[in-house]
Specification:
The complex is a heterotrimer of chains A (240), B (216) and C (221). By secondary structure, chain A is of the alpha/beta class. Chain A is built from nine helices and ten strands. In chain C, α7 packs antiparallel against α9 and α8 runs antiparallel to α9. The chains are: A alpha/beta (240), B mainly alpha (216), C mainly alpha (221).
Chain lengths: 240, 216, 221
Amino acid sequence: MIEIENVHKSFGDLEVVKGVSLTVDKGEVVSIIGGSGSGKSTLLMCINGLEPIQKGSIRVDGIEVHDRATDLNRLRQKIGIVFQQWNAFPHLTVLENVMLAPRKVLGKSKQDAEALAVKQLEHVGLGDKLKAFPGKLSGGQQQRMAIARALAMSPDYMLFDEATSALDPQLVGEVLDTMRMLAEDGMTMVLVTHEIRFARDVSDRVAFFCNGRVHEIGPPDQVIGNPVQPETAAFLKSVK
Amino acid sequence: MFSTSLTVNDVLYLLEGAWVTVQLTAWSILLGTFAGLLFGLLRALLPRASLPLAWLLDVFRSVPLLIQFVLFNSLKSIVGLNLSAFAVGCIVLGIYAAAYFTEIVRGGVLAVPLSTRRASRSLGLSYGQDLRFIVLPIATRVAFPGWLNLVLGVMKDTALVMWIGIVELLRASQTIVTRIQEPLLVLCIAGLIYYVMSLVVARLGARLERRWQEND
Amino acid sequence: MFDYSFQWRPALRALPDMLAGAWVTFETAALSMIFGVLIALVLTVMRQAPNRLLRGVGNGWVSIARNTPSLFQIYILYFGLGSLGLHVSSWLALLAGITFNNAGYLAENFRGGLKAVPGTQMRAARSLGMSAFQAYRMIIVPQLLRIVFYPLTNQMVWAVLMTSLGVVVGLNNDLTGVTQEYNVKTFRTFEYFALAALLYYLIAKLIVGLARLLSWRLFRY
């Protein structure tokens, strides 16, 4: 379970997250929507401790993320994240990209790590690209590789930071399909996304972010289909 | 607590040496810039035909400058040319600078995207007009930092001409060291002069570059 | 047109000695590169340190190495240290001078290289649970190596060319030193130095060639 309580986050003088509280249960899929600069991506970075917070608390399975005593490296093993700019490691092959962390962080043997990586890559439909370097792949393929890379750590949670925003329109579908598959497998997921229809399809709950706060939250049919707040309605109208 | 036999005259002597360094640098860069510009354009626009030129210039970049001085100097006496040591220094350093500048110019011209050139030709500009009004102005900006580095490099490399008997800054400091036997002090002053000269050139260059950028 | 007859035979007879000198040249350059890279790494870290003194020393080193002639740097190590009672051999002064120079130039290259590896790579590595050290070793440094490989090769060629300055402080067993010894004995300046130039050229080409082979092997992406 991810418990976010009254979190504040600033960059210098600029406060981007202004007191957000949100709980994500095991097996739940929560989508965060909202305009750019509303603090949604930043919140995601705070969940696995890539960005420090100024106030409040974030607990993952009861472990305080922003406590100095917390071993962040261990905590991150159970929180996978997929970035907007996929961030493939360009000097490693697709297979090596996925194998690296299981071997070096989890200490698996080469054979085990390779078997695991091959399984994950086949799962996302890249079984024929094992020996290729990321530079030779399309953006969609690189993003699916990044998903496999995160999954190879057998995480309990997956965070998606606008995973499809940097892709060409015709490549968005393949990545969304992979994410949908994951949601159907029962993975706990937090998605920051601009794909409203997708969010409505896969989410258990949708949160609308506005000015660094959760402005409206509830089941997708309510928040997207019949929003209470005028800001939510305005935002939904603007993205359609 | 601090006594030295360094006199005002010695410092003036060092400054005279520095003036020789500046002159050598200026002449060699002048020569190197013109030759390098010509060669660089040839390399960029006629890559195939100018390949032997590239090989030749590569030799000047792969042989120590000191040896180039010695070789040219002895060749001069073999052929019986009546050139001063200063002229020999300028010519060798000039060719050396040209060898480097050629690559810088070539890089600058090749950095102009083909699409930009297509755009200018599509407006009806001739090959020469395209070169003069589009390619060269863009290439100049790309090549300028490299050229500036070259000026700084050549200024430092002028120190080697002492080997063929020119009294420039470093050689001047040597002469004084031999007389007053205070190498650390004298060398530090010489080093400081080099440092300041480099800094002045670098600052002027940076200012020029900034002014160009403001106009962009 | 000129009444000078070239005599190549004596020069060719000196070839074995000159080849031995070429080996000293290569060795000195290689050593100066090894030490230079190590010091440059330390300088790169120092220049990013929060401590002002460390930063000052790092920046000072780079700035002096880049803004004064390498011959001056060798001079000050040879004559300057000598006047402090620290007598170093001409070879050691040469090695130290080139190493000082290499370290300064390489530190600047490394800094540029670090900037060229996107910060998001560090993020991605850390998000997989890697420690900062693991991320540097397995993700950042391998990518940095590719970026600085070409400048590193160039610097090695430079180091070889710089070793020729040893003769100015009296070194007599490197390629230029050996050549000069023959020159003062025979006054066949052109022949001997032309041969030396050829050898330098070959060493430079050898280094560039080897580096190219190595980069094909190392950087497959």
